[in-house]
Design goal:
- This protein is an alpha/beta fold.
- The protein is built from six helices and six strands.
- Helix content is 40%, strand content 11%.
- β2, α3 and β3 form a beta-alpha-beta unit.
- The longest helix has 20 residues.
């Protein structure tokens, strides 16, 4: 959460799912700061909202407001409006999240797991991947890659690294 907080502070906006506690924690961090969220759901949008497009996607988000705010948040789905969630949908959702991300901040990764593979693909595309130092060890799934290790206990270094990354992304987009 500490790296996510720093990323939000320097101007990054989260792209996340909605139906797992780790995704919801990120969304709640953003909501507390009044930062817009881009949700990518693993089912149809009507299904994700339980048929009510005015309500929040998950109960804890309603603490910050009883209704979804389309002026600050965006919800995307690669599935038909009423499609039910299925296990295979998670991979498609994750592909969309990673495709939209200008930077990836990885928490827990299972060696050979979906997120591990997505991080490796992101690195191959040239997308920066950051890993929290507390999760880092020589056997970490990204140990021998170009992933950047940040120690949330050293806040000023993390802030500087993510701020530099934000500046680089802004500069890159200005030249497109």
């Amino acid at each position: 959460d500490a790296l996510a907080e720093i990323a939000l502070d320097v101007g990054f906006r989260p792209v996340t799912g909605h139906n797992r506690s780790t995704y919801q924690r990120l969304a709640l961090l953003a909501r507390r700061r009044g930062v817009g969220i881009c949700y990518v759901v693993d089912r149809g949008i009507l299904e994700a909202f339980g048929g009510d497009l005015s309500r929040e996607l998950f109960p804890a988000a309603a603490i910050w407001g009883p209704s979804y705010d389309p002026l600050t948040d965006l919800t995307l789905s690669p599935f038909p409006l009423c499609a039910h969630g299925q296990g295979t949908n998670n991979r498609i959702r994750d592909s969309v999240v990673f495709a939209l991300a200008g930077v990836v901040i990885a928490g827990e990764l299972r060696p050979g797991g979906q997120m591990h593979r997505r991080c490796l693909e992101a690195l191959k595309r040239g997308t920066a991947v950051y890993v929290e130092a507390s999760a880092w060890c020589a056997t970490h799934p990204l140990a021998h890659t170009d992933a950047i290790v940040l120690d949330a206990g050293r806040m000023s270094e993390c802030r500087a690294a993510l701020d530099k990354q934000m500046c680089a992304l802004c500069e890159e987009r200005a030249h497109q």
